[in-house]
Amino acid sequence: MKDLIVGIVALAIGVAAGYMINDKGTQVASLEEENAGLKSQLATSSSAPAAKTGGQTIANVKKKGFVQCGVSQGVPGFSNPDASDNWTGIDVDVCRAVAAAVLGDSTKVKFSPLTAKERFTALQSGEIDILSRNTTWTATRDSALGVNFAGVNYYDGQGFMVRKSLGVKGAMDLAGAAVCTNLGTTTELNVADFFRANNMEYKLVAFEKADEVVAAYDAGRCDVYTTDQSALAAQRIKLSSPDDHMVLPEVISKEPLGPVVRHGDDQWLDVVKWSLYAMLNAEEMGITKTNIGTMMNSDNPSILRFVGKEGDVGKNLGLSADWSANIIKQVGNYGESFERNVGPNTAIKLTRGVNANWKDGGLMYGMPGR
Predict the structure, then answer these.
(1) CATH number, domain containing residue 176
(2) Span 99-119, mean pLDDT?
(3) Which of 69, 98, 244, 312 has the most Cβ atoms closer than 10 angstroms to its Cβ?
């Protein structure tokens, strides 16, 4: 207990100080690194009670009649509201898939827009049932924050965006640059690692909200905007002159993004995980929103298991037999979600790349549904 109290005091001091700065004025560490030991203690103490309430999340969701989903404050293609506050995006579709599986209705979702700094606290406290907010799966987050990652719905990597007028050809030309990014993200750590490893100075200009970062970069307060490459493509369309900017070719990190749940409720983890797998497996088997009705009468054993005509997967998850069929009827498979939200025919214009199904040479692979 004494160690924990001392650790909490240290965290308070760290928050007040903000960041450690080296003698060149370059940010070299964030609270995420400096307080990793304390986070481990806090996560252990906070996750222990959750283990006693295992299985309660799905019961609570059914009782209240909706899934509370933590999302971004607006990243087009991933989680973004329109003028009528209707949310769309591939992260949104994960939450809608869970609602379809548990409640039989993909519209039974309420969304909580969260900053990067707020997101894990909201999940740990029970404010949200699931965090689906372009969140990177890392060892520290998985082991020290009292959360579980339920899979990957987008494989990404961090990149840099600059004005074409700067004449920059690559990331190694960025020495001395002012770099805009978000507080409380792996982006901060990765950019510090990149400049340190390459013995280059830089100035970090960080903001809590994504729109603040975009506005600062657009206003010329920094030379470079760095975040996940998918987010750069999404945020680029918000700039006053999108065509005046380019994303540099270098990818400086691995950023596997996916949904997150609290420690201590394995049933809910299974439900979220298998809802994502259902979307992946449906694409692999050629099951779509258009043909799901026909597939209900298939002679293929794998498809019959998928739609709930055979096997006990739904029962084992605490769901109805047709849980996965409901996901595809109402949300679609992963490929449909990708094309609808971020694909080549959208404003984001992303290609599948490593996010293609494994049969097409990508990394997207659902576990066997049997």
Answers:
(1) 3.40.190.10
(2) 97
(3) 98
